[in-house]
Amino acid sequence: MAKLAQVTGSLDTLARQGWTPPAADHNGVRVCTASDGSVISYPEGGLDVLGLDGGQGFWFDHRFDVVLDLLRQRGVTGLWDVGAGTGSMAVRLSQAGLDVVAVEPLKGGAEASARQGLTSFCGTLQDLRLPDGALAAIGVFDVLEHLEDPGLLLAEIHRVLAPGGILVVTVPALQWLWGDEDDVAGHYRRYRRRGLAEAVSTAAFEPLASQYLFASLVPVAALLRALPYRLGRRKSEAAVLGKMKQQLNTPASVDRAMRWLMRAETKVAGTFPLPTGLSIAATFRRVDLPVNS
């Protein structure tokens, strides 16, 4: 694994503001709370599905490529990854030279990030009790769909972001693609681009850019996931988690083919917006809350 970028800037800035982080435990994790992570709807076996090494394969890499491009468009050089899971996005961003901190409520995920060399906090963003306007950028990658009321997290993100700070988001797309995977993963919803923009904008964020990802996989997902679900065919949680892990760890030959397909999709997306996809990636800018008259 490539050497991770050293985290210095954001933590040093917070220290100058008088914020003292919890000390790292013997696993290298800074535990902010004794919470079991129940604030987020996520299955017990989900971390293993993601991969305790941060995950490998075309799905993780293509999502990262799109997010990195969005961040570079906004000149983002450092980011706090909130709901970082096992570090699949945080590690890749750090390897790309960004100053990254991982925040994850599930201890197993926080420990996985720490093992990969990241500064890792176990807790929620609210647990950290950061100063107002402390951070330049925050990422929430496949997190909002796990929250019954994402407005609570978005309000806290708004509070701790500096004026004009950047929020980057990924979420699963299109409610009509709902399947067993969504039930088992603990999703409350899937999004359209407009719906995501409206949901985040209500927390005083200005939409900057958004795009669908994995458009070429929509027909397969509709046929093999959404259609059987609508016909009432249900699988056990163990079977669904096993299938999800298999999909994220495809054979080398399939992975190569999918990478070629994702490169082609990226070229198309550079010419005109993709009309559909399995996921959405979007960036927003923090704006001031309206002043009550």
Notes on the structure:
The protein contains twelve helices and eight strands. The chain has helices spanning 9-16, 46-50, 58-73, 88-95, 107-115, 125-128, 150-160, 180-185, 193-201, 218-230, 237-248, 252-269, and strands at 29-31, 78-82, 99-104, 119-122, 135-141, 161-172, 205-213, 279-286. The chain has an eight-stranded mixed beta sheet, sandwiched between helices. The longest helix has 18 residues, at 252-269.
Fold topology:
Blueprint: H1 9-16, E1 29-31, H2 46-50, H3 58-73, E2 78-82, H4 88-95, E3 99-104, H5 107-115, E4 119-122, H6 125-128, E5 135-141, H7 150-160, E6 161-172, H8 180-185, H9 193-201, E7 205-213, H10 218-230, H11 237-248, H12 252-269, E8 279-286
Parallel strand pairs: 1-4, 2-3, 2-5, 3-4, 5-6
Antiparallel strand pairs: 6-8, 7-8
Helix pairs in contact: 3-4
Annotation keywords:
293 residues; alpha/beta; eight-stranded mixed β-sheet; globular
Describe the structure concisely for a colleague.
By secondary structure, this protein is α/β, with parallel strands linked by helices. It has helices spanning 9-16, 46-50, 58-73, 88-95, 107-115, 125-128, 150-160, 180-185, 193-201, 218-230, 237-248, 252-269; strands spanning 29-31, 78-82, 99-104, 119-122, 135-141, 161-172, 205-213, 279-286.
